[in-house]
Design brief:
alpha+beta, Glucose Permease (Domain IIA), 3 domains, 5 helices, 47% helix, rod-shaped, binds zinc ion
């Protein structure tokens, strides 16, 4: 009891109006405890305040960062859409280029066998383009997935451009040589006139008895009408020949020569380079001729062939 009493303190509370005195017995450690508690509370709330204000600052910063990111995100989305559109445009252009190349090859008569081969080996085919656009369409709305899809689109486009470039480079040689042949080939009529005698055996026009081999084609052109070179070439002969009268012979290369006979006037001389359609003679009635006409011959490797088989 005595020991216990030492650990306690008694508070006396004496109100003015009342006679009763109230007394409270409290443990002696209690005031110290209260003081320490109050100090701790003050420290804790100060710490909380500083944490709260720093959190608030962080929140403000984050909010503005998010705002910035959202606007960056928005502009990135526009950029990505632009890139996708560009990639589709390049894809379309590549397909168009391939189509044009095929058309040029077809026009100059480059065999479809090589076309098939090049189409098979070329990555610039409609199948591949479909897969690329599918990839773009199917890409998830997630930005990084979209970027990856665009990256792969562009990588595939770069490959396609390289392969198309190679295909064009490989085609230039054959196309050029084919064009040179087509320009040299005697494929047009030497005069605009009707054919009066074709290639082959016919009744002798001079004696009207027996037959002779007609080595060319006769055109009922009028006197002085212009005759043209039927293909690119070099004039091998321009002058007089007893039977053919005033005559021009053109060498076209590829073993092909053409001959224009019975002319009244010669417009080119030996060694001249002539172009398909270029004026070379004026039609006449010179040499062994029954009347004004153009006698026209085509020779392949020195042998007369039917000129009609070369006309377009
Ligand atoms: Zn003839």
């Amino acid at each position: 009891m005595i020991k216990n009493k030492k650990n306690y303190a008694t508070f006396m509370f004496i109100p003015e109006s009342q006679s009763t005195v109230k007394s409270y017995r409290i443990p002696v450690w209690f005031p110290k405890f209260v003081t320490v508690s109050i100090i701790l509370l003050i420290l804790a709330s100060a710490a909380s305040f500083s944490i709260l204000s720093s959190l608030k600052l962080q929140y403000e910063i984050s909010k503005s960062e998010i705002g910035k990111l959202t606007s960056i995100n928005g502009s990135q989305k526009i950029e990505i859409e632009k890139l996708q559109k560009n990639s589709e445009e390049v894809q379309k252009q590549l397909e168009e280029n391939s189509r044009m190349l095929e058309e040029v090859k077809k026009a100059v008569g480059i065999t479809p066998a090589s076309n098939d081969k090049s189409t098979d080996s070329s990555p610039v085919s409609s199948d591949n383009s479909a897969s690329v656009s599918k990839l773009t369409e199917n890409s998830s709305p997630d930005m990084s997935a979209k970027i990856e899809s665009i990256e792969s689109d562009f990588a595939s486009l770069v490959d396609k451009i390289a392969s198309q470039k190679q295909e064009i480079n490989e085609s230039i040689g054959p196309i050029k040589s084919k064009l040179a042949y087509l320009m040299a080939k005697p494929s047009i009529m030497p005069v605009t006139a009707s054919i009066t005698a074709g290639f082959g055996y016919r009744k002798n026009p001079f004696t009207s008895r027996g037959s002779e081999f007609h080595k060319g084609t006769d055109f009922a052109a009028s006197y002085g009408q212009t005759a043209v070179a039927t293909g690119d070439g070099i004039v091998m002969f321009s002058g007089w020949n007893a039977g053919y009268g005033r005559m021009v012979i053109i060498s076209h290369g590829y073993g092909l020569t053409t001959l224009y006979a019975h002319n009244s006037k010669l417009l080119v001389k030996q060694g001249d380079k002539v172009k398909k359609g270029q004026a070379i003679t004026k039609v006449g009635n010179t040499g062994r001729s029954t009347g004004t006409h153009l006698h026209y011959e085509v020779k392949l490797n020195g042998k007369n062939v039917n000129p009609s088989t070369y006309f377009n």
